[in-house]
Amino acid sequence: MEQLEKGYNYLEENSYFFGEVPNKRAVKVADYKFFWDATDELTPFGCEEAYIAFCEISEWLNENPKTPIIECFIWILESWDLELEDFNDEIIESENILKIIQDLDFYDELMTLDYTIIATGFGQLILHGKIDEDVKNIIQLSILRQMNSHVLDAFLGSNEQFKYERYLYLQKLLEILEDA
Q1: With a threshold of 0.90, does the pTM exceed it?
Q2: Beta-bridge mates of residue 99
C-alpha cells in the first residue's frame, strides 16, 4: 500500500496543512502519506472532527504559548465529563468499549473523543515538531481503543479491507507517537 510506504515528504507537494506550515521535524517523523491525507476517513485527519480539533489546537497553542498542552487535554476530557484520572487503561478494555457501543452514543462518546485527542496530539507534532511526553499516554490510549476489534466493527461494519487498513494506519500512528 502506497499510503504506508515510509519516506513520503509532505512538503514536496504541499506548503500548508489546513492553513498552517508544518514543522519540518513533523514531516520527517510522520513520513507516511496516510498521515497527511485529509480526505480518507480512516486517517488521523480525515474527518470533520479531526479538522476542527486541529484548528482548535492551532488556535489554542497561539493563544497559550507558555501553557503546558496537558491543560488543553484536560479541557478536552472535561468537555466529555471526564477527569484526567478517568482516562486510563480501563478505557481500552473490551467490556468498557462494549458498554459504550451498546448503551451510549458510540460516535459521540467514543469516536469523536478519540478523533479529537488523536488530532490534537498529532496537531502539536505538525505545529511544533514534537508531542509533549505528558500527553503521549492519552493519545496512545485513544489509538489503542481505536484498534479494538469491537470499535473497528462498530465503525466499519463488515468491510474487512477498511478495518485492515485502519488497523495498519493506527499501528503506524503508534510508531510515529513514539518518535514524536
Answers
A1: yes
A2: none
